Amino acid sequence: MLTSNSHFFWVGNPADDSQINEKFTQLENIAGLPSALGGLVCIHHDNAEEIDASLKAFYSRPGSWSWCVFVTKATPLSECVTDGVYDEQLASSTWDGMRSRLETMKHRSTVDPLVGWLGVNRERRVKPLKSITSTSIYSYPIIDLFFPDLSSTYRYVLAEQKQGVLENDQLIDRIRVCSKCNSGHLNYIEVCPSCSSIDIESQSSLHCFTCGHVGDQQSFLRRGKLECPKCLTQLRHIGVDYDRPLENHVCNSCSHLFVEASTVSHCLSCSSQIAVEDLVVRKIYKMSLGETGEYTFQHGKVAQAPTLSIKGKVDVSFFPEPACVGQ
């Protein structure tokens, strides 16, 4: 059953506008909402924590996908799971469009909540949320709220995208994660290319042409002049008596001199040390309803052809009839 067209709900602090009070039923919390499919709710609290708590409580209710949801103050979470900040004209037009789609749906009670949520409002997107407290860095809040038991919303998105339920809408970010634990908390460190020690430092070196000695520039300074500490030759002219070698780094562990350090990643979650080229690259997309998702929303099930195999037989109904000659 769908709620009345004029049955809208204002949750939290009372509205200051008398016109809003006339259109909305005032409720203290989400628990007072009816269980019917479809409706419009606006959440109004003073701080972001209360708004987010009310949104999480709302989406734990069956049929929440079918509601039009607004807030009076935007939060990072609300930008991913609501229809925006409340505006009378926007709310009215959004609800009118959603209601018309809900009324024509034949499988309201069995539709997948994510497919239903995207299908009733084509402006909605599955948006990623960045959080430095999360090991994966990015999550998809609307999927977390609909399917709280999932171990990885990213893997879920990949599976749904592969099946055509979701499709890429906009590339938001590209990150690298640990190939062992999938954490995005990585520290990139420069190490010695010879022994992989992190105890390296830059130094200015000199190369004596007379004896071939190479060492730190400080070791060549004698009485304010440059003098080779090995053969005691005075170094007056660069390019004639000495030069500066390309190797401008030294390893304090193995004394290796080198031009460029090697870079490795250190996972801050599992402590693994991984070559940069072995990290897993993740593309983080904003997602929209895909072709299969659209079909599921309209018809309530996915059209699937049987798996072809050498031993199996395929029913003739899955093949188009050949066109008659002359037609």
Indicate the topology:
Layout: E1 8-12, H1 18-23, E2 24-27, E3 39-44, H2 48-59, E4 67-71, H3 78-81, H4 88-104, H5 113-119, E5 129-130, E6 138-139, H6 141-146, H7 153-163, E7 166-177, E8 186-191, E9 200-202, E10 205-208, E11 214-216, E12 221-222, E13 225-226, E14 242-243, E15 249-251, E16 257-258, E17 262-267, E18 273-275, E19 280-289, H8 291-299
Parallel strand pairs: 1-2, 1-3, 3-4
Antiparallel strand pairs: 5-6, 7-19, 8-17, 9-15, 10-11, 10-14, 12-13, 15-16, 17-18
Overview of the molecule:
By secondary structure, this protein is of the alpha+beta class. 22% of the residues lie in helices and 25% in strands. The protein is built from eight helices and 19 strands. The chain has a four-stranded parallel β-sheet, with helices on both faces. A three-stranded antiparallel β-sheet has the order 8-17-18, with no helix packed on it. A hairpin with a 2-residue loop joins strand 12 (221-222) and strand 13 (225-226). The chain starts with 7 loop residues before the first strand and ends in a 28-residue tail after the last helix. The model is unreliable at 1-5 and 305-327 (pLDDT under 50).
